[in-house]
């Protein structure tokens, strides 16, 4: 190997090591602003599959993936309680609980037909989507906006 070549390989090696190190640091202590996306439980992991199967992402975005008709669901687990999510996903008329702020035809469909166990998985998944600051905080049972009754 020529001298120049050695230097190039040495440099490449150093860059690789630095990148690995940075990766480990971010993995161990993610920056505060990053929402958490570790699936907290096997149930939440199953719920993610329900989310995909039901094509929620046709309207909703999580981590910037998905459609624009519904809202962003990042951090939904910090904004809505398990009880609220369960009610919202089992009611015949979600608009009664949360009047759509979108256009008339962009409405959250009813998922009342979803089997109970699937809904429980889905709710576990949604409530695992917390903002990091709120990691341990309990979401309020009644969110202030759009809550009637
Ligand atoms: C046809 C489009 C559409 C589909 C499909 C859809 N949603 Fe929605 N969703 C909406 C709209 C519109 C809203 C109301 C947003 C607003 O008014 O700000 C909403 C609201 C929500 C909210 C309340 C958000 C909040 O900020 O409180 C949750 C939670 C939710 N959807 C979850 C789901 C899940 C889970 C699925 C799949 C099982 C799903 N949605 C499928 C359109 C959709």
What are the defining features of this structure?
2 strands; Cytochrome Bc1 Complex, Chain D, domain 2; disordered C terminus; 149 residues; single chain; 6 helices; mainly alpha; binds heme C; 2 domains; two-stranded antiparallel ribbon
Q: What features would you describe in this structure?
A:
By secondary structure, this protein is mostly helical. The protein has 2 domains: 1-30; 33-134, Cytochrome Bc1 Complex, Chain D, domain 2 (Orthogonal Bundle), CATH 1.10.760.10. Helices cover 44% and strands 3% of the residues. The protein has 6 helices and 2 strands; from the N terminus they run ααββαααα. The protein has helices at residues 3-28, 42-53, 76-79, 82-88, 94-97, 116-127, and strands spanning 61-62, 65-66. A two-stranded antiparallel ribbon has the order 1-2. The longest helix is centred in the first third of the chain and has 26 residues, at 3-28. The radius of gyration is 21 Å and the shape is elongated. It starts with a helix and ends in a 22-residue tail after the last helix. The relative contact order is 0.17. Bound molecules: heme C (HEC).
List the helices and strands and how they pair.
Blueprint: H1 3-28, H2 42-53, E1 61-62, E2 65-66, H3 76-79, H4 82-88, H5 94-97, H6 116-127
Antiparallel strand pairs: 1-2
Short synopsis of the structure:
It is built from 6 helices and 2 strands, in the order ααββαααα. The protein is mainly α and 149 residues long. The chain folds into 2 domains: 1-30; 33-134, Cytochrome c-like domain (Cytochrome Bc1 Complex, Chain D, domain 2, Orthogonal Bundle).
């Amino acid at each position: 190997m020529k001298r120049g070549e050695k230097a190039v390989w040495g440099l490449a090696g150093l860059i690789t090591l630095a990148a690995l190190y940075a990766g480990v640091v971010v993995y161990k202590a993610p920056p505060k602003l990053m929402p958490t996306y570790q699936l907290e439980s096997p149930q939440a992991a199953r719920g993610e599959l329900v989310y995909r199967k039901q094509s929620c992402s046709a309207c909703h975005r999580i981590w910037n993936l998905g459609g624009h008709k519904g809202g962003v669901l990042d951090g939904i687990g910090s904004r809505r309680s398990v009880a609220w999510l369960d009610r919202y996903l089992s009611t015949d008329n979600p608009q009664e609980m949360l009047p759509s702020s979108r256009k008339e035809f962009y409405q959250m469909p009813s998922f009342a037909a979803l089997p109970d166990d699937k809904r429980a998985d889905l709710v576990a998944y949604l409530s695992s989507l917390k903002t990091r600051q709120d990691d341990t905080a309990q979401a309020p049972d009644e969110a202030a906006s759009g809550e009637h009754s």
